[in-house]
Amino acid sequence: MGFAETFKALSDPVRREILMLLKEKPLSAGEIGSHFEMTGATISYHLNILKKADLVTEEREKNFIFYDLNVSVVEEVMLWLSDLRGGDGDEKRA
Amino acid sequence: MGFAETFKALSDPVRREILMLLKEKPLSAGEIGSHFEMTGATISYHLNILKKADLVTEEREKNFIFYDLNVSVVEEVMLWLSDLRGGDGDEKRA
DNA sequence: TATCTAATTAGATATTTTTCTAAATAATAT
DNA sequence: ATATTATTTAGAAAAATATCTAATTAGATA
C-alpha cells in the first residue's frame, strides 16, 4: 500500500485539516469544500490524493459522495513511527 | 514547533530512510551519505530539513558532525495521529 | 428526455521541491 | 601557516505539487 503515498498525503496542511474534519463524521465533497477558501476542483484534487493513499473511503448517496476517514491506515502509520521510535510501542510499561 | 514542517520532512523517502538509519545509532553526514547515490550537498539539504523539523539533532565531534534521531518529536507525531484516529490512543484496553 | 445539482477531469500556470556542480567554511593535522 | 578532510552554502535546472477556470460526467428529478 506504500508509506510514500501515505506520508505524502499527510504532508499537506489542507489534507490534514480535511482528515480532522472527517474524524467527526463522514462529509460530502461539498461540505468539505465549504470549510476552505478554494474551488471545488482543488478540493477534489486533494480528496483524490487522500483516496489514493487509502486514508479516506468514499461512498455515493443520492447525488452526493460522502468521504470518511479510514482509521486503519492511520494506525499503520502509527506503527511505522512506533518502529522508528524503537522499543515495543508500549514503553511506559517496559 | 509545527506539524507542517514535521510532516513535510517525513514525506520524503530519502529522509525517512535517513531516520531509519539513525534509529540504530548516530551517524556522521558522510556515513549517511554513503548509503545513498547522491552528492553530499543533497544529503546536507535533507539533513537540514530534518533538523529544522527537529527530527534530528546534530553534534560536532572532531572533524565530523554526528546526527541523531530525536525520538520526542516522533512521539508528538504519533500523538497527532492518535488524536486523528480518535479514542484515547490505547484502544485495546478500552 | 431535458435539466439541475454535485462532483470530477482537463489543461494551464505559479510555486515548491529535489538535485546537481562549484565555491565556501570549519576544524584538524602537518 | 598550509594543506587536508568533512560538511555546508549558493546558484541553477529539472521535476513535482497546488491551484485556478472551463468543460465534462453521474445521478436525480421534473
Structure description:
Two copies of one chain form a homodimer. The first copy, chain A, has a single domain, classed as Arc Repressor Mutant, subunit A (Orthogonal Bundle). The first copy, chain A, is an alpha+beta fold and 94 residues long. In chain A, 24% of the residues are buried. Chain A is elongated. Chain A starts with a helix and ends in a 9-residue tail after the last helix. In chain A, strands 1-3-2 form a three-stranded antiparallel β-sheet. Chain A binds a DNA duplex (30 and 30 nucleotides) through α3 and α4.
Which features does this protein show?
homodimer, alpha+beta, Arc Repressor Mutant, subunit A, 5 helices, DNA-binding
Question: Which secondary structure elements does this structure contain, and how are they paired or packed?
Answer:
The structure is a homodimer of 94-residue chains.
Chain A: H1 3-10, H2 13-24, E1 27-28, H3 29-33, H4 40-52, E2 56-61, E3 64-69, H5 71-85
Antiparallel strand pairs in A: 1-3, 2-3
Helix pairs in contact in A: 1-4
The structure holds a DNA duplex (30 and 30 nucleotides).
| Most extensive protein-chain contact, per-chain counts | A-B, 22 and 22 residues
Largest sheet of chain A: 3 strands, antiparallel
CATH architecture of chain A: Orthogonal Bundle
Number of strands of chain A: 3
Please state the oligomeric state of the protein chains shown.
homodimer
Stretches of chain A where pLDDT is under 50 for at least 5 consecutive residues are none
User: Beta-strand percentage of chain A?
Assistant: 5-15%
Helix proportion of chain A: 55-70%
- Rg of chain A computed from alpha carbons, rounded to a whole number of angstroms: 15 Å
Counting structural domains of chain A, the number is: 1
Q: Give the SSE string of chain A.
A: HHEHHEEH
